[in-house]
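BUG: 3D viewer hangs when loading the predicted structure for this chain

Environment: internal workstation, default settings.
Expected: structure renders.
Actual: progress bar stalls at 90%.

Input used:
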Amino acid sequence: MAVTDQAIEKIKKMIVSGSLLPGARLPNEADLADQLGLSRNSLREAVRALTAMRILVAKQGDGTYVSGLEPHLLLEAMAFAADVSHGRTARQLLQVRRLLEPQVTALAVGRLTAEDLRTLRAILDQSAADIGIEEFIDLDIEFHRTIADSVGNPVLSTLLGILSTHTQRLRIVRGTLPQTSGGGAPARIQAHCEHEAIWRALVNRDAALAAAASAVHVAAVEDWLATGPANSSADLDTIA
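Structure tokens produced before the viewer hung:
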């Protein structure tokens, strides 16, 4: 294990053991390096890495603190890995989304307010208009985020947001190509129809149907990834 990795593990152990509590200020650099048996350079590298992971927070002129360690904030460190995933890794992330999102959609049935449903309806109406693909993608993300946020679990919302963000580039490609298995209609039309099916199930307060409609929607993206250009030898960045 590299020296920096060892330093990271030592600081994490202090947090896990309770020696450093959420919100606690780290000892000054010299004292902490001596306490952990590290060089100051190794300690600095470890602190930078843990800050990037949202485990530590650097406050200008005031030192470095342990963050609040809220799970939904720590999960955001996964976003970059999700964004750069492709091929088998991208499919694996979509499989996780397929497992989670239908259950979250079913939970939302009992939590969405009348105002939430009106918001979803407005999103769908806007996405049916003659708009560019990137605006359609933004509305797509907002549609799913509104449903997830209604459940009131920021960990689930963040995780699903990350899993959806990684598919953003795929949606751009998918939205500009014909369906591979349909009659040539743009795939964005299919996506919009799938959103409508989810909305109808939510309005009718039918949790089982909402979960099924959501599963169909995510599976369609997963199927496209398995059979579309991203699965071929072409590089997704050059396609998008």
